[in-house]
Amino acid sequence: MMLQWAVTAGFAMMGAAALLNFWRLLRGPDAPDRIVALDTLYVNTIALLVLIGIHFDSSVYFESALLLAVVGFVTTVSLCKYLLRGDIIE
Amino acid sequence: MSLVLILLLPIVGALLPPLAARLGRDAAPAAAAALTGGALALLLGLAPSLDEPAALSVPWVPTLGLEFALRLDGLGFLFSLLILGIGLLMILYARYYLPKSDYLGRFYGLLLLFQGAMLGVVLADNLLLLVVFWELTSLSSFLLIGYNIGSGESRRGARVALAVTGAGGLALLAGFLMLGHMAGTYRIGELLGMGETIRAHPWYMPMLLLVLTGAFTKSAQFPFHFWLPGAMAAPTPVSAYLHSATMVKAGVFLLARLFPVLSGTDAWFFIVGTVGLVTLLYAAYVALFQHDLKGLLAYSTVSHLGLITLLFGIGTPLGAVAGIFHVINHAIFKASLFMAAGIIDHETGSRDMRRINGLWNYMPHTALLAMVAAASMAGVPLLNGFLSKEMFFAETVHLEQLGVAGWILPALATLAGVFAVAYSVRFIHDVFFNGEPVDLPKMPPHEPPRWMRIPIEVLVTLCIVVGLFPGFMVKPLLDAAALGVVGALPDYDLVLWHGLSPPLAMSAIALVGGILVYAVRRYVFAVHDRFPLPEGSDVFERALSRAMAGAEILRASSDDGRLRRYIALVFVSAVVLAAAPFLLRGGGLGPLPLTDADPLVLIATFMLVGGALAAVFMHQRRLLAIIWLGVVGLVVTLTFVHFSAPDLALTQITVEVVSTVLLLLALFFLPGGQREHEPHGRRAFDAMLAALVGLGAAALALGVLTRPYKSIAGFYFANAKPVGGGDNVVNVILVDFRGFDTLGEITVLAIAATGIYAMLRGLRLDLPATDSAGRPWCGERHPLFLAVLSRPLLPLALLVSIYLLLRGHNAPGGGFIAGLVAGTALILQYLANGIEWTQARLRLRYFRVAGTGLIIAALTGLAAVAAGRPYLTSGLLHLNLPLIGELELASAMAFDLGVFFAVLGVVIIVLAHLGRLSRQQVRTPPANPEEVH
Amino acid sequence: MMLVEVLTSTFILVGGFFSLVGSIGLAKLPDFFMRLHGPTKSTTLGVGSILIASAIHFSAGDGTSLHELLVTLFLFITAPISAHLLARAALHLQVRSVAEQDTRRDCE
Amino acid sequence: MEALVALAIGVLVGCGVYLLLRRHSFSVVFGLVLLSYGTNLFLFAMGRLNTHREPLVSLPGPYTDPLPQALVLTAIVIGFAMTAFVLVLALRARGMLGSDRVDGRRGDE
Amino acid sequence: MRRWLPHPWMSVLLFSVWLLLVNDIRVVSVIKAALLGVVLPVLTKHFWPERPRLRRPSVALHYLLRLLLDIVRANLGVAVRVLGPNRRLKPAFVSVPLELNNDLAVTLLASTVSLTPGTVSAEISADRRTLLVHCLDVDDKERIIDGIKRRYEKPLKEIFP
Amino acid sequence: MNLLLILPVLLPLLTGATLLALARPALRTARVLSVASATAQLAVAVTLFTTAADGLILSYAVGDWPAPFGITLLLDRLSSLMVLLTALLALFALLHALGGVDGRGAGFHALFQFQLLGLNGAFLTGDVFNLFVFFEILLIASYTLLLHGGGASRTRAGLHYVVLNLVGSSLFLIAVGVLYGVLGTLNMADLAARLAAVPATDIMLVESAGLLLLVVFGLKSALVPLHFWLVPAYSSATAPVAALFAIMTKVGVYAIVRVYTLMFGAALVGPWLLWGALVTLAVAGIGVLASRELRTQVAWLVVFSVGTLLTGVSLFTGMGISGALYYLVHTTLVSGGLFLLADLIGAQRREGTYLTSGEYPAARQWLAVLFLVGAIAAAGLPPTSGFIGKVLVLQAGLESPEVTWLWTTILVGSFTVLLALSRAGSVIFWKSNRPPAAAAPHWLGSVPAAVLVSAGLWLALVGGPLTAYTDATAVQLLSRGTYVSAVLGHVKEAP
Ligand code: NA
Ligand code: NA
User: Fold this and answer.
1) CA dihedral over F249, F251, F254, F256, signed as positive or negative
2) What is the DSSP letter of B788?
3) ipTM for the complex shown
4) Residues B460-485: pLDDT tens digits?
5) Residues of A in contact with D56 (CB under 8 A)
6) Which residues in chain B have their CB less than 8 angstroms from residue D89's CB?
7) How far is the CA of D101 from the centre of ligand 2 (A)?
8) How much is the pLDDT for F31?
9) Alpha-carbon gap, residue F367 to F444, rounded angstroms
10) How many H helices and E strands in chain B?
11) Which chains touch E (3 or more CB pairs under 8 A)?
């Protein structure tokens, strides 16, 4: 019961966080702002996935979270590399 | 049997002259003559059995009703005789006519081809077979008219001829198809007895028009006559043979052939009669004014064809007999006239009657022959032309259909006779007399070689003999031919003297009037020159070039070469077609209630919609659009997770990352930059179309989602574990139930990689020295922290990849995802350490990896074949090992390993080669786009 | 059992809180470099806490579940890289900053 | 829930179509990516929207329909291959035609 | 030894990570973990040509614990600053002179800085002697520099001499 | 089970994969492998053809999973005809490519094999999603083959071609999705069976999907207004590729025939298809007439032929389908040959394939004869297969209420083609009067062209047996029960 309540609250906070990330994505103003917002969205998604796992008492969501952590940052890295060098693989 | 040979000798034999031509100049004509002579002999051999027409039929395309059916009746015999007889003479003549330099193989080959085709037309007993040969005559005529390569005149003439006769052929085809359908048979022999049924059929009129169009175009009837003068660009033997004696008679042959079926209606009378009459008159008139010798003969031919057509149009049996008779006579005298004209052309180098004068002094022998033939053409008594013309005049007089206006036809016929006499007189006087030649290219002209005259002599002799002894010479032939046309032979006499009768008077008027007209020719010409008639072929040429220009305009206006229009049309089509059933039948949502949305889905949808829209609004700022795509992809991933698709989520995550890297690699070379404003209207249209398509997709989705369905999925749950050996049903579907799809899918990947590699090879692009805002790039290539941390990350990520690969059969994961993860891990090395560094350590031929993966996957399936099971049948191995315990190995897992390697190889091929693109560039100022084109 | 639930719930709330704070920081702080602090710290701890919650939750049933640690491991390796590269990019682009300017450099 | 997903599909498809109609090859690629998101989601939804019914027979049922998932997985991978291909083709067009427009021209409207 | 265990600590890490991944310790898992722990570093050894030696594992462990603690502290600090009025914050760039001569150590330091109180490593100088750090709220730059050097650089120097 | 049935898929797959795994093999090796594979495929195709000619419908359950759960390959008269046609065309196109085209870019032979894989798979599969996969295979292979040899016009055409086809693929997925979402299966026979029982409340969804498929297949077969990609693409591809592409549009036609005879029936698409086909004829006629370049003209001829044969198909009668299939065989081989021929001509004159006077091609007589045969076949003049095919369609049209439009369009269209081709031929062979600088073409280039173009003649000669075969094919297609029971007859119910 308590757990369900906490999970719901967790969902609410993660949802709010996602919306805030979205807002930053819209606002910018610069590309790095948006990239950092996207990166944060990735991380929040990881948390959300774990939360969903707890919610359903299921571990099938775990790999998604793990994979986001393993490969997600490659997006951020390549976006930044683009801003820095244009040529991301050189 | 000999019937087939008559046809096949020239057709198959057409190959012989080109081959024989290598043996010497005489070889080709000799071969052609031998073949024609052989066919002629066979034909004559069949003459005694005409009462019992020889026939044969071999099925060809039964579905179509097309059969190789031949039948030799009197009409066919007569025409075959003309074709082969005159053909033989023409082969002889042409041997001397054609320039020494000519390669005769082609000419004689085509001539034989034509001859065979023409024989086919007259012998065919199947409507469709007749069309086959009919079009073949058009084609061979086209090729023969164009014989003089390089001459614009012959090229144009050939094309106009082909266009007109080809179009007629199409009409004829349509008409015949209708006729065959109406009769229920395409067999001409059967058809001939069904005249009444056919004439009463509602399709009679359109069918008649189509068939007549075919006949009229071929026989150069007004208004389709104009191709024939143009066809005079052909070598004279061709003009003589095809365009006067034989091919142009195919039209009137058709009128004769189908006379029992089609004639006897008012429509027939008025259409055929009128066309014939107009042609007769018009062409006779125009012929007078031709300065070209062959032009005169050509219009004269048209006019005579009109006469014959008119005779068939009149519709009486006697008219038909007269028509057939005139076919014979015209063929004889006109062929000889053309040959004479050819000799003149050959000897003087000109055909212009204004320059050719007084040839009587140079070639009296030829002149005499030509004069006899011309007299026959004019209808001078004692010659064959007179006889049939008399019959024609008689028919016009006895005609009853026109009632009180009955005098019109004889009057017009006489008028045509006047012109015919006039141009005949001109042919004689203007060429052989009328003073001395003017500026002839060859001077002085000589008599032609002996063998060149012989064909004319033969024909002119025929003119006289037939003229003098018609009953003896042609009556049996004519009777036999007419029998098939009119059923019961009318009572007629072929004698020279019918007594003083209106026809004789008309002949006399024509002769006297014609001479008079020629006498006052200067005035007549002056009047004519004041009112020039439009040249049909010019009109046609102009129309054709206008049509081509119009076609180009139409094509260009429908196709602006822009992708936008193409895509829009696809979507418009999709919207229209997909909406049609709903509009026609009504209907919408199904019975199932919508489930409640939880707030998370609401937020996700909000972000998805917002992200997509933001990508659209910011699409010109490409980097931002890429970021927005990342957002959308992430939310899509979440959607997959939320709706119970962990495998999809895993795939989506990695594909998302790899795609971003890909887009950024491309973005370097395509940075965009300046914002462009497209016209408001265009954007509004696009937005509307986009909205419609989106709406359609949403509606379809909702329509399905609110309906229950019964899927085949139960089978998969039941069999995944016991037979497939895996808990993860999606994976078992991918590698087992529908492993074939997956095999195809990794093939797609491999092909894409091959293609990308091929496209990138040698590609040169400008390297942007600054970013799109004009800032120079940062100097450091490989940020330290990234490089350092990429080292431990590689084995870690590979570990995760292996983990996902091994568990895929039982839990979310599998070859695809694992391959993508491993690929991403390697990409990170490229990103962090650069190509050289990475390549030096990754000693892999990527294509080998991808290809091997593909082979592994494909061969795994073959193992089952070796065991006698269908391809890709999965095997399951239960192992009970010490320490490890029970282990279950499915061969599908080997398949998955293949998938893993294929995906890994492809990802690396694509990204590494794309990354390397910047290294094959030189930093030079942008190339001038004009040079690139 | 109760303890597990309390612990799990607590960690969930803590995690949610820090994640939210990180995102608030991202949304609210006035310049890019300051905004960067939000996600790099708060989110890692946010995710970390929720992962701990998960580990506790799933270990409470049959056997231990520690694979959540892995997510943390990867995040701790990767998050600083992201932050660093982002900062570098921003420096390179000379993104507006309210920080003292004296020591700012562009990458060479 | 169904309405929301349908909305998402519609918007993705619509946005994809709009971008496909742009002139620059990069926008067209964006359009293709969005369109394939839309179609993938569409295809996915055809197995109906079930929460927490992963088709893993190790879990207790009921399960969602696994077949569309397998199809979508195939479609995602093929879509990736195609995106990569078009991108490289766009690069090639840039090199060959001297323009980053799908029609290889610039300027005239 | 070097050939088969190029990065022994990495092997240990991989071994544990595998066990964590499979989330059990059955015999078969352990065998696989050991196998992968050996094979993967060998397979990828070219990608990690440097052989950083971990000298004092105890210090490393201590460092890790401190890091975790600092992360918690940092988060609390950042939370307060973020939620409070942002105007009062005094952000600044601080250059931290470095004495580490090992790339891995420098990187770990930078990562640590990024994960801990109000600081983000923004840039490392080309000679790897100066780390530019962005601080969210600075009263005294020297204290920050000192803190970084004392709390993190010193132990790292011990671990990676 | 009959292993032969999977060989048309396996042979090119393994050949292609091997060529790939060899990582840039020597051209010689690639050639040997490729030709050997193509020859073997022809042999297999002939065997399959003789097997299917008896009227048997053979099915092959890949992975031993019974229909409708696994993927079933299916061999009936239609599919065996298509596979044979593909193998025939491919072998000659490949031989032509050995003349040097294959060396002009990377991976030609691998891609060629993959293209064959896609084609054969598409013809053999009995599963609608698997059809999608094979479509993608043949498309992506064709994308690359199209670009083979480089050049600006190829690139632009390629970009348009690729993007349009990707749009088509999306529509395909949506249609397949709807079908699955309503009917719950992917096997075509099973779909057909379930479609027959679909409740009236759901029918419009299925029909909507069916019509969406028409857009997809129409796009592949270049049905107007979805034809724009074809001419630039085909006219810019290298000759052997363009020749092979002659069968590509037929994949769309095949899919139309298969899907609508089996699943949806004539009523749904008949009228749309008929009018689309007639408009296609008109547009293509204009295109043929407007062409100022031979390869463009031949490409328009391909569109024209699509119009003709879809007209036949749209009637959905035995005669219509039979005629269309006969025409399909004819036009595939002849247009393939014409592409090769155009290449030969272009290589022999400085003016290339532009329809302007200048140099006549070397070996003028020989090429002129081939051109003549190809042209009259394309224009549908006797005594060629084009004529027979056209007349078959015309005859079939007699049963249509729109017979007037149908006949007018086809006949006027033929006339237009005749005009245009007589102009083209006379300009190249008669008007051009300068001797060419180039040497006569290599036999490896010209013999395949000759064989394919002369199909116009030898297909006419075997018109009887071939139409008997297409008649039987049409009968087989129109009795959908046979197909359904051949596939589903031995269903083991799910345990
Ligand atoms: Na004169
Ligand atoms: Na690069």
Assistant:
1) negative
2) H
3) 0.95
4) 999 999 999 888 888 889 999 998 88
5) 60
6) 759
7) 22
8) 93
9) 14
10) 40, 4
11) B, C
What torsion, rounded to 10 degrees, do the Cα atoms F459, F460, F464, F466 define? 20
Cα gap E144→E118, rounded to integer Å: 10
What confidence tens digit (pLDDT) does each residue in E27-85 have? 888 888 888 988 888 888 888 877 777 778 888 888 889 888 888 888 888 888 888 88
* Identity of the residue in E17, E24, E120 whose CB atom sits nearest the CB atom of C37: E120
Handedness of CA B299, B304, B309, B310 (dihedral sign): positive
Q: Region of B561 please: left (phi>0), alpha (psi -120 to 50) or beta.
A: left
E132 SS3 class: strand
Write the DSSP string, B513-538: HHHHHHHTHHHHHHHHHHSPPPPHHH
Q: Give the one of F63, F180, F290 whose C-beta lies nearest to B872's C-beta.
A: F63
Q: How far F148 CA sits from the closest chain D CA (Å)? A: 12
B787 contacts on E by Cβ (under 8 Å): 103
Distance in angstroms (rounded) separating the CA atoms of residues C34 and E70: 19
Question: How far is ligand 2, taken at its centre, from the CA of residue D24, in Å?
Answer: 22
Task: Kindly tell me if the per-residue pLDDT of B876 is higher than 90.
Answer: no
Question: pLDDT digit string (tens) for F176-187?
Answer: 999 999 999 999
E43 closest CA partner among B845, B796, B911: B796
The CA distance from B767 to B484, in Å, is 85
Chains in contact with C, where contact requires at least 3 CB pairs less than 8 Å apart: A, B, E
CB neighbour burial string for A30-56, b if at least 16 within 10 angstroms, e if fewer: bbbbbbbbbbbbbbbbbbbbbbbbbbe
Please identify every stretch of chain F with a pLDDT value under 70, giving residue numbers as ranges: 1, 490-495
Q: What angle do CA B250, B251, B254 make, to 5 degrees?
A: 85
Asked if D57 contacts F191 with a C-beta cutoff of 8 angstroms, the reply is no
Phi, psi dihedral angles at F349 (to 5 degrees):
-125, 155
AA letter at F439: A
Q: What percent of chain D has pLDDT above 90?
A: 64
Written as six digits, the tokens of B5 are 């040979």
Q: Would an 8 Å CB–CB cutoff place B661 in contact with chain A? A: yes
Q: Could you give the C-alpha distances from F297 to B575, E81, F300, F485, in angstroms and in order?
A: 31, 74, 5, 44
Instruction: Please report how many Cα atoms fall inside a 13 Å half-sphere around the Cα of residue F453, on the Cβ side.
Output: 27
Q: What was the pLDDT predicted at F251?
A: 94
Angle at CA of residue F291, ends F287 and F293, nearest 5°: 145
- Cα distance between the two ends of chain B: 63
Q: How far is the CA of B574 from the centre of ligand 2 (A)?
A: 40
B609 CA: distance to closest CA in chain D (Å): 6
Tens-digit pLDDT profile for residues B644-701: 999 999 999 999 999 999 999 999 888 877 777 888 899 999 999 999 999 999 999 9
The model's confidence at residue B931, banded by pLDDT at 50, 70 and 90, is very low
Report cis status (omega within 30 of 0) of the bond before D62.
Answer: yes
Instruction: Please classify residue B888 by burial: count the beta carbons closer than 10 Å to its beta carbon, then call 0-12 exposed, 13-18 middle and 19+ buried.
Output: middle
The single-letter code of the amino acid at F286 is I
Rounded to the nearest angstrom, the distance between the alpha carbon of B355 and the centre of ligand 1 is: 5
The band of B492, judged by pLDDT with boundaries at 50, 70 and 90, is confident
Which ligand is closest to the CA of B296, given by its number?
1
What does the pLDDT read at residue C108?
45
Which H/E stretch holds residue B56? Answer: strand B54-61
- The two tokens of residue B695 are 């709406």
The shortest C-alpha distance from D52 to chain A (Å) reads 7
Confirm if B106 and B235 have CB atoms less than 8 A apart.
no
pTM of the model: 0.93
How far apart are alpha carbons F417 and F284 in whole angstroms? 9
